[in-house]
Amino acid sequence: VYHIYASPMLRLGEVDGAVVIVLDETQQRMAERSRQEFSANVSHELKTPLTSISGYAEMMENGMVASMDDIRKFSGSIHKESLRLIALIDDIIRLSRIEEEVKEPQSLEPVELDDLCEAVMESLEPVAKKAEVSLHLETCPAVLLGEDGMLSELVYNLCENAIKYNHPNGNVWLSLSQDEKEITIKVKDDGIGIPEESRLRVFERFYRVDKSHSKQIGGTGLGLSIVKHVVEYHHGRVELDSGLGVGTEIRVFLPKVIE
Ligand code: ADP
């Protein structure tokens, strides 16, 4: 959006010239709109579990729950929705912290990515076991100047998704490779895949493919948005390939040294 202000310069009653000011508001407006959309989305996402919690609690309060079984069912739902709320708030805080840091990068330190990947895979072992998914890791010694906590989160989110959106007996492969300039983190799965029209959108905040199916799986829709911001923080880039019913591969390229 360009705004053009023109004002003639008058001298002794004659037009001598003109002052033209061209103001580019595109960036500003887009940032403002994205902030507004984010607030609207956050309110909506927070309201949904809270409405359920308050509904269940009200029914219990009014004595509308007769049996012990019902009480167990209702309090179970309240518990589940509260956990969802906590996860959501955690992710929102994490995302806004990373967004702030992208604006003002903190000092970077050498991070041993092979150790980091091993630790993430180990922490996801119980999740994979429960989902009956096998984890495979292929690393090489790789050191990157970066932010340890953010990079762990990036690898964790990618691998957790690869487990979550998968089938029993599915597989997740995490691999590290490098050349002289950059390190590639690749997370591949043979899970449900992402439909073509959603492939560009999955990095948006709160975007989830097939909301009803995703709701059963659990998640906030913020994981890949966090990945995108961490990649941005490290001046890297991300690529995604996916086939419905075939699987998904996400590659993150990170420069070893940020210039
Ligand atoms: P969520 O918390 O829902 O997992 P993400 O931002 O991590 O949020 O991912 C956004 C959406 O992208 C997910 O809800 C899911 O529909 C889709 N998605 C992400 N990773 C995968 C994957 N490996 N396979 C299939 N779908 C995926």
Automatic annotation (TrEMBL):
<feature type="domain" description="Histidine kinase">
    <location>
        <begin position="41"/>
        <end position="258"/>
    </location>
</feature>
<protein>
    <recommendedName>
        <fullName>histidine kinase</fullName>
    </recommendedName>
</protein>
